[in-house]
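Weekly puzzle thread! Below is a chain. First person to post its structure in token form gets bragging rights.
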Amino acid sequence: MGIIDTDLLEDLYGGGPHSAARAFDVQRELSKIVIKERQFGELKTVAGADLSILTSENKLICGIILFSYPDLTEIERVHTVSDERFPYIPGLLAFREGPAIIETFKKLRQRPDLLIIDGQGIAHPRGFGIACHVGVLLDIPAMGIAKKRLYGNYDEPGEKRGCWSPLMSKEGDVIGSVLRTRDNTKPVFVSPGHRLDPESAREIALLCSRGYRIPEPTRRADIYVAELKKRRS
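Winning reply:
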């Protein structure tokens, strides 16, 4: 499936307080193999992934939509409903949501050139957010686009579309971009997940923004998941 044997993580996905400390250690170890440079040529397809919790059922519903790039014409969409196997623990959401995204990704008939996830990439306390987690396990270029800052320091960017400021780690490294995708709206937090650099991630996020705050791949995936959730209830 990727460059990491998921048996390494299988017991962690079972959840429970006993596994939280190990999960933190796994994040620190796997963050060392995240590739923080662009490792693909012409970008022809992108996929957006989003996920929601079915609280009453202890299940997760995940949707992924594949688009052509840069015109963002939809090619296919897939979804899964899976059991929730790891509890909610701040900073460890990838262990809760990552398996569902990977399971859904396997249903795509065509492998995308880039996967965009609603969440963080390297802009994470241990440098290993969900876009890194999924990107490394699938060995695919990946990036995260989040609505809120999880980690890092920044100056507020200008109010016009395209304005941005670097998101910095405590050590002074650039770990992402705070990007204004629409005039006079709140910025989004863009960070590479795997096989991608911060500059490329920012450029792609802006090119995928079509008049809304949230770039189209994850915005449309969010709508898709909301529709699936409504149908199920």
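Puzzle host: Confirmed. Bonus trivia for everyone else. The mean pLDDT is 92.
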